[in-house]
Specification:
This protein is mainly α. It contains 6 helices and no strands.
């Protein structure tokens, strides 16, 4: 029995040793970053750099500087002594440099345009939502104004009250003078039977 206990403890120790030698992945902590062979860059900063370059390429200053460099290049390689010339007449190196500049400029300009398209799309979406809110507010205010107009149509205005009061004053004055067009009898002087029949 004793050897069996020793073997089980040895097996447990061996399994514990292999478990401790192997790192257990913890689910409550993020994994450590892996090493990558390719260099990493921030896409946002690279996009800002591309926009800056594309903005510079679209200015007159860039065209002037490029024209000055090409003229100096051609003049130097035509008029300098033959030992100091670095690009002979067909100007192959100049063509290569201009092709290289164009091959880098085109993707940078496209990247800047894509970023501008994304910004325009976001701005258009925000403008659309703002327009929807403005239309909803305008419709609400229109309904409120219509309800106020309907309510004001049922309210007695100052001119109507003034005209009614003037009619009552004129009626009272005529009754006091005794020549009322209907009768010289106030409603309180009427007999109750007649009043019932009038209703």
């Amino acid at each position: 029995m004793v050897p069996e206990r020793e073997t089980t403890t040895r097996e447990r120790a061996a399994s514990g040793a292999t478990a401790s030698s192997r790192a257990r992945a913890r689910l409550d902590q993020p994994r450590p970053p892996r090493r990558r062979l390719l260099p990493e860059w921030d896409p946002e900063s690279f996009g800002r750099l591309s926009e800056r370059v594309a903005r510079f390429l679209g200015t007159g200053r860039f065209i002037v500087w490029m024209t000055v460099v090409i003229i100096l290049w051609v003049v130097w390689n035509v008029s300098a002594p033959s030992g100091l010339r670095f690009d002979e007449y067909p100007f192959i190196f100049l063509t290569l440099m201009l092709s290289l500049q164009a091959s880098y400029a085109a993707p940078l300009i496209l990247l800047a345009q894509n970023r501008q398209d994304d910004r325009d799309r976001v701005n258009l979406e925000q403008d659309r939502k703002q327009n929807e809110r403005s239309i909803a507010d305008t419709e609400y205010l229109t309904r409120e104004i219509a309800a106020l107009r309907i309510g004001l149509g049922e309210v007695a205005t100052r001119d109507w009250i003034r005209s009614e009061l003037q009619d009552v004053i004129r009626d009272l004055e005529e009754r006091q003078n005794g020549h009322h067009p209907d009768r010289g009898v106030f409603p309180a002087d009427r007999s109750p039977g007649r009043d019932v029949h009038d209703r």
